[in-house]
Every structure is written in C-alpha cells, then in structure tokens.
Amino acid sequence: MDSNGECSSPPTLSAALLPLFGPPPEPLPESLEDKLRRVSEENRRLAAALDAILADRSTPRALATSSPSRGNAVAAAEPPRPKVRTVCARAEPSDADANHLRDCYQWRKYGQKVTRDNPYPRSYFRCAYAPSCPVKKKVKRLTRSELQQLFFFPSVLLFSNAVKRRTPPQVQRSADDNLMLVATYEGEHNHEQRAQSEYVVTDASTSLHQAGSSLPRSIISIDSSGRKKITIGLAADQRPPADSNAGAAVGEIIVTPEFRKALVDELVNLLTNDSEFVEKLASAVADRVMERIPGHIF
DNA sequence: CGAATTTGACCTGCGC
DNA sequence: GCGCAGGTCAAATTCG
C-alpha cells in the first residue's frame, strides 16, 4: 500500500497497480467504440486493482512482520489479532467537526496527528461507552489523490487525456470541501451497544438514523479477510462498523447510494471543469454525428 | 466545575 | 545505531 513497511504485499498487487501508474497509452487515433472498449477493459483492470488494494490493506500486520521478540511465543498461545475494519464515509458538510465520523458508539478523542502524506490530521478515538472496551478508531480525511486512486477516476482521466498533465485540473475545490473520511476500527466491543430501539430506520436503502446522533451517512466497509461481498444499499438490519458481537459479515463491502452519488459528484465536477475533456468529447460527438449523416443527400 | 478536546512531548517499531 | 513516522500520554485549554 505505502512505503512504510507494508512490504508483504501480495505479488498480484504490484501487477494490478501497473495500469494505474504506468505511462499513458499511445495517442493513436481510434474510434469512439475503440475508446469505450478500452475504457471498459481498463475499468475491469482497475476493479481488480481495487480488489488487490483492499486485500493489501486488510492484510494483518502481524503476518507481515514477524518480530524476533515474539518469535519464541507459541503461535497457538498468541492472543487473537484485533479485528480491523475500514470504513469510508462522507461527512455532512454541516458537520462542524468533519473529522469525527459519527456512529452509534460513543468515542473519546485521545490524540490527533498530522501524518506525512496527508495535510489533514488523523484523529484517534477510544470507545468511551465502556471504560474497559478495547476498541479504537482512527479517522482521517481522504486526500484528493487518494480518492482518485481508490476509485475509478484514473480511468476517466486517462480517457480525457488529462493524466498527461503534470498539474491537476485547474478547478480545484477548497480543501475543506473534501469530506470523504476513512475510519479504521480496531478490536471488538466487549459491551452491549445501545438499545436497538434507539435506532430508527428511515430508509433502508440510504441510511440509518439514531436519535441524537447518526451513523455514517454512507459507507464502504472492508474487513480483514480476503473474501469480499458487495452489497448495494444498507440492509435494514445492518449494524454499525465493528459490531462483532452480532457476528458481522466478514470481508464485506457496503456501498450506499449516497456514497456513490458523492463519488459521481466528484467525477462530474472534475470532468465538467476539464476543458480538454469537454472539447474532445464534443469533437467525438461531432464526428459521430457526421458519420451518421449520409454524404449524398444534397 | 467537570467533561471533553487540544496539543506538544514521549514512546515504539521499522527501515536504512 | 540512528532517524523517521505513527501512535499514545497527559497537562493545558475549552466548553457547556
């Protein structure tokens, strides 16, 4: 994933990432169908790359590093690794503290740190609902480049030729406009969560709302397993992240319509402000129209 | 005034 | 062994 020690990436990852970071394709003249075919093919590769990234992120650290100090410990005697789940969510712009991803648990902030590759500080929380609860939560904002890498933006940028630019598209939203958050939950709650009656399902396909506070408006969650299940929409009985007591599904990716909409908004904003892309698109449409007009009608 | 948050210092693991 | 970066601690500060 990054260069800070995650050296045990599966061999498939680097191969899968090549299409993302490799040089742009040769600018050969091609028809719109060819372009669409190429983009579809690339989308397939990017989907595979995303799978590899997610699998890499969920690789338990203990497997990647075998500390000599712990080498003597009998494997069977080791305590079970804390369960790790990653949740991507979009905070509401109205949230004053956009770095606090709200869910049904009560969290106490115990630290904040500016990390190297992200201008937004990372926040650290502990479960404050039960003093003995070991669950921790890290919340950070996604940078724009992380967003573009994580989802399908590179494909479209490639299509629009914008990837050749050294500088990002001219129109850039303010940093504060980026409300995509990533929360990492570690451990399992050893207490009951609040009574289910506190939750009111207003629309199972979009979000759950809790009296007093709300769950993440939209989430993609990734568990520490190689297997993944993709569920569109939030099931009515879906529990908040790290609710292991309920036997949460392992290796689950939940994509809600709101999260998808947020991504599409980002994409539309990016492309509509990319004059080069608009110009090429208009040109391609004009070419297509010209092809359909018989040359002998006049 | 107590609880929650902020923030600089300190600790720890990892790569070189 | 050293330096860097992430994670945690705890005193100071803020807020209701």
From TrEMBL:
<dbReference type="InterPro" id="IPR003657">
    <property type="entry name" value="WRKY_dom"/>
</dbReference>
<feature type="domain" description="WRKY">
    <location>
        <begin position="96"/>
        <end position="194"/>
    </location>
</feature>
<keyword id="KW-0238">DNA-binding</keyword>
<keyword id="KW-0804">Transcription</keyword>
<dbReference type="GO" id="GO:0005634">
    <property type="term" value="C:nucleus"/>
</dbReference>
<dbReference type="GO" id="GO:0010200">
    <property type="term" value="P:response to chitin"/>
</dbReference>
<protein>
    <recommendedName>
        <fullName>WRKY domain-containing protein</fullName>
    </recommendedName>
</protein>
<keyword id="KW-0805">Transcription regulation</keyword>
<feature type="compositionally biased region" description="Low complexity">
    <location>
        <begin position="8"/>
        <end position="20"/>
    </location>
</feature>
<dbReference type="GO" id="GO:1900425">
    <property type="term" value="P:negative regulation of defense response to bacterium"/>
</dbReference>
<dbReference type="GO" id="GO:0009617">
    <property type="term" value="P:response to bacterium"/>
</dbReference>
<feature type="region of interest" description="Disordered">
    <location>
        <begin position="1"/>
        <end position="31"/>
    </location>
</feature>
<dbReference type="GO" id="GO:0043565">
    <property type="term" value="F:sequence-specific DNA binding"/>
</dbReference>
<dbReference type="GO" id="GO:0009620">
    <property type="term" value="P:response to fungus"/>
</dbReference>
<keyword id="KW-0539">Nucleus</keyword>
<dbReference type="GO" id="GO:0009751">
    <property type="term" value="P:response to salicylic acid"/>
</dbReference>
<dbReference type="InterPro" id="IPR044810">
    <property type="entry name" value="WRKY_plant"/>
</dbReference>
<dbReference type="Pfam" id="PF03106">
    <property type="entry name" value="WRKY"/>
</dbReference>
<dbReference type="GO" id="GO:0003700">
    <property type="term" value="F:DNA-binding transcription factor activity"/>
</dbReference>
<dbReference type="InterPro" id="IPR036576">
    <property type="entry name" value="WRKY_dom_sf"/>
</dbReference>
